[in-house]
Structures are given as C-alpha cells and as structure tokens.
Specification:
The complex is a heterodimer. Chain A is mainly alpha-helical. Helix content of chain A is about 80%, strand content about 0%. Chain A has two domains: about 80 residues, no CATH class; about 160 residues, Orthogonal Bundle (MetI-like fold), CATH 1.10.3720. Chain A has 13 helices and no strands. Helices cover about 35% and strands about 20% of the residues of chain B. Classes of the chains: A mainly alpha, B alpha/beta. Chains A and B meet through helix 10 and helix 11 of A and helix 2 and helix 3 of B. The complex binds adenosine-5'-triphosphate and magnesium ion. The site of magnesium ion (MG) has 5 residues of chain B, from helix 1.
Chain lengths: ~300, ~325
Amino acid sequence: MLVYALKRTFVAFLILIVVSGLTFSLSHLSTDPALTIGGENASDEDIEAIRILYGFDRPVYEQYFSWLGRALQGDFGESYHYKAPVVEMISGRIGTTMTLGVAAILFALIVSIPLGTVAAMRPNSLIDRFALLIAVLGQALPTFWFALMMIIVFGVWWRWLPISGNTTWAHFVMPTIALGYYATPALMRLTRAGMIEVLASDYIRTARAKGLSPTSILFKHALRNAIIPVVALAAVWFGFMLGGSIVIETIFNLKGIGWLSYDALLRSDLPVVQAIVLIFASFYVVLTLSADLLNAYLDPRISVR
Amino acid sequence: MSGDNILEVQNLKVDIPVTAGMLHPVRGVSFTVARGETLCIVGESGCGKSLTSLALMGLLPKTAIRTADRMDFLGQDIRDFKERRMAALRGVKMAMIFQEPMTSLNPAYTIGNQLMEVYRRHISKNGSEARARAIFLLEKVGISAAASRLSQYPHQLSGGLRQRVMIAMSLMCGPDLIIADEPTTALDVTIQAQILHLLAELQDEFEMGMILITHDLGVVARVADQVQVMYAGTTVEEGPCQAVFDNPLHPYTAGLLRCIPVPGKAKRGSKLGSVPGIVPNLVGDLQGCMFRNRCAHASSICETLSGEPTRIDDGHAFTCRLTPEEAAKTAAVQGVA
Ligand SMILES: Nc1ncnc2c1ncn2[C@@H]1O[C@H](COP(=O)(O)OP(=O)(O)OP(=O)(O)O)[C@@H](O)[C@H]1O
Ligand SMILES: [Mg+2]
C-alpha cells in the first residue's frame, strides 16, 4: 500500500511539472507580456527595457526554470496589472472557490447516488424515467444557460436568493446548484449502471440466500461495490468543477480564483494565470490520487496490483 | 407422510414470461427430503435444476411465477410466505451453496465479516460467539490457520478454498436443509471429490437434509439416498438411489447411466449430455412426453401422454408409456449396446 502510494505521488509530481511547463511556454509564446506591462502608451524603447528587466529576452525554458524555482519556494511573483503578490491575491480568494467546489460536488453526490440507486432498483419505472430525464436535461443544457435561468426565476422574479456576491451562504445556493447539476447526470448514470450490475451479481444472491435484511443487502453489500467507480469519477468531476467555477464565478460575481483567472486572462496577467493553472493542476492531481487511494481502500483487490 | 420429512414439495412449477411467450422451465416436480437424507437431482444443463432450488429458497428472478400444490418446510406451508418470512428462514433453517465459488463472496469484505454476519443476523449479536463459530466451522471444512483466515479477502483464496468458505457459511446457523447447486462444477477435478466428500460428511455429522444438484453420476451413486432425474422441467424418474441405479426404467435415465464410470476412475464421460439429441423448446403450451424426439421407443401415444408417473415398489417411479417390464427390458438392451 505504501509503495503504491509513493509511486503514485511521484507520477503526480511529474504530471505537475509537465502541465506547468506546457502552460508556461504556450502562454509566453502566444502573448507578449512586455506589451501588457508597458501599457498602451509605452514606446518601443520602454518595451525593450521591460523585456530585459523581466528577462523576457531569455529562452522560454530558462524563464520557466527560474519561475519554477521560485514557485517551489512559494514565490509566484507579482501581478502585472494589480502589482500585488500573486500568492496574496490567490490565498484571499481560494476559500470561496473551495467552498463552492465542495458544496457543488456534495450537492451532485447527494442527488445522484440516491437517484441512481432507486433508478437501478426499479429499472424502467417512473422514477427511473424521471432520473433519465434529469440526466438528459443536465447534459443538454449549457451550465451558463441553466445559471441564467435560475437567476431570472429565483433571483429576479421571486427574489428568493441574491444573484451576485459572496457575503452570505445564500449567495452560494444558486452557484452550487448550477455547478453541481453539471456533474449530476454522469454520476447518477454511473451509480445506476453500477447498481444494476451489482444487484444482479452472485454475491448479492448469496447475501439474499443468507436471509440478510434488505438494508444490509442494499447498503452493505450492493452500494459499497457500486460506488467504487463513482468515487473515482466524483474526484475527476470535482477537478472539472474547480475549473468550471470560472464560468459560474463570473456569472454570479463570486470573487474566487475562477473569477480571478477570467480577469487575469483578459488582462494577459501571466503570473496570475500561471499560478492558477498550477493550483488547478495540483488539485486535479491530488484529487485523482486520493480517489485512487480511496478506491484501494474500498476495493481490497486494487492494492494487490 | 412420515414425520421425519423436513421438506415436502408437490407439483412445483416455475413459469417465466419471455418475449416469445411463457417459458415453462419447471413443470410440476415433486419430492420430499427427510432429516439426514440426501436427495440428488440430476439432469442435463437447462432442465430446471437451479430454478427448482431457487424456487425453494424464494430466490427466483423477479419475473418468475412460482406455483405448487404443496410446499411444506419444517411443517410450515411456505408457499405464501412473503419476502420477510422467507428471509427469516434463509441462512438459518435452509442454506444454499452455489455453483460459482469465485463470484459468490462479496469482494469488499473479509471472510470473517461475511461468515459472522449471517450468525449475527439470525442467532446472536454477540461478536465473539460468532467469531468462535466461524473459526470452528472453518476448521470443520478443512481450512488450516482458521483464525488468521478471518481477516482475508475472497480474492486471496483459491476457488476450492472459497467453496469451503461458502460451505462453512451455509452451516453458520446450523440449518435443517442445505441445498448445494453443482457445488463443484467450477472447481478442479482433484478438488471436486474432496469437496463432495466433505459435504457428505458434514451433512451426516449435523444431521441435515441435503439437496445435491450435480452432473456427476459417480457422485450420485456414492452419496445419494434418493435420486430424482429431471428432463426438460419434469421428473422422468425418481426413487431410492440403489433402485434407480440397479434398475433404471426411463429411457433417458438408462441413457445417462450407460456411460457411468467405474468408481475411482473418474472418466470425463460420466458427464451428462451423452444422450444424443437436443432439449425441446419450453415456451408455450407443452403436450406429451418431452423426451419423445430423442427416444428410441417413441410412438404416437407419447404425443399425448399425461405425465402421470408409473409407480413401482419403494417409491421408485418413472414417467413413460412403457410398462415397467418393457422398460426394464429396453434399459437392459441399451445397457449392453
Ligand atoms: N431469469 C430467467 N429468464 C428466462 N429464462 C431463464 C431464467 N433463468 C433460467 N432460465 C431458463 O430456464 C431453464 C432452466 O434453467 P436452470 O438454470 O434451472 O437450468 P439448470 O438445470 O440448473 O442447468 P445447469 O446445469 O446449466 O445449471 C433454462 O433453459 C434457462 O435458460
Ligand atoms: Mg444450474
């Protein structure tokens, strides 16, 4: 188990290096940060001076390694636009994004696991069809459209919920649903498929032959096995959600790092973009890693491999 | 009927609606099992052996319809038992061992957990008592280092060991009836004999009734008290083991017995299916003897045969148009051929 975990951690680390290297070189090749820093009125000489000052004249890989070296020490530089340390800008906002992400994935799981389970227990019943309808709608409707609809109905018509900002928990309700709903169809369908397969398995027949209670058969024997793949998928979706929070945070004006990355991209504020990409990538990697470890814990056969 | 019978079944039928119409995989079988007695059900693949045993356990697929004139288990009529009452019998009064040891245990839980849970459900919540019982039974089924096995997962055990665990599990609550549905089909030939021997021994020791479903006629000859030969959902011949083996009357039974191996030399030829021809489709209205299209002695009477068994002495009965004398003669001829 320990060897397995170490191996996975090492791979995770390599992935981070590759991801950050790629984004670094791509963004440095696609825009000229010196133009951004200099602003509209800078002369050619000013731009040249900025290039030398910031080291943009050096080869990209050299710039990358010096950036990486500082990043590893927790120094992500300063925002070109706000002239504030990137670390401070992010740490002030990450709480909002995490709150939103965690709430959204919990919302998705709380909706999709029971719905998928009930649908699996009665395939083709009314509830199964209802679940399917939700899944189809969830996949067909774009998130931003769904978010706007909620804003119109609950925020503007009925005035139940605030539509912008992040000062109270009520501000998080609509963003959570909008973001969580996005993951619900996939998680629900996987729960349903897994449950149908597990319920037809020989060990469920054994559990019934032992005269166990329906609760024990459903929760202890069936669900435990059916949610193993769901856990892995939920971790991946949590990663997507942190990424997807860019859209949601922008729509609801929740000032988390999703909102910040949108802002930074518009301004070509590369140090901020770099740092956020690295953070999202690390989330992603840590999530997949913990999903694998959780899987290994849930399914005793895994760690053997 | 004798007071010793723990199970009496009369005219058990299972119907399953399928797209082509109504499937009749079990079409009126009757048998009794006495305490300490082994009933062997034999018959080729698809003749309804598994569905018969699942019907007894109340574990048929949801769509299946079960009817019977009589189904008394331990003096109770279990025909109308709802799921709750059946669950209270399963695992404790009647237990079942399945054909697939590799997949019949839950991969997510330890052997100990799965053994103890059935005891805790039916007998006592006391964990150390359940543990002691589990260890006792693992030793009984010939598993060494039983205590340390409790924390192992199914995937860490071989098929033979898993089937031993399944046997131990079925015995946890001391059932009156144990149903073993081809418990060794998925195992190595060398292990098959050990497991069957073990089952017979334990059944004797714990004085349980046993229904053993098997393809292996060599095994039947050794362990059965009663034999029931099934063909296409019906019983074609039944009776005490000795009588059926010495004097097989139904042409199908005679055909099966033709290739029985000499005990000790387990020839693969002892497997069923050595009778030429195929099983008829069991969908829709069925009339007459189902074996007639494969039978050397079929005549026009067979198309409308009622299916009433011809009884001889001692509970030996067979369902055929032939008289016992004719049947005995043809069986003997077949035996020589
Ligand atoms: N759920 C089901 N739906 C439709 N048909 C079924 C179902 N289960 C079993 N059958 C059919 O019923 C017949 C009897 O099946 P059963 O499993 O009892 O056979 P069996 O005698 O146990 O065979 P085997 O020796 O292969 O285990 C078979 O033809 C099978 O295809
Ligand atoms: Mg079977």
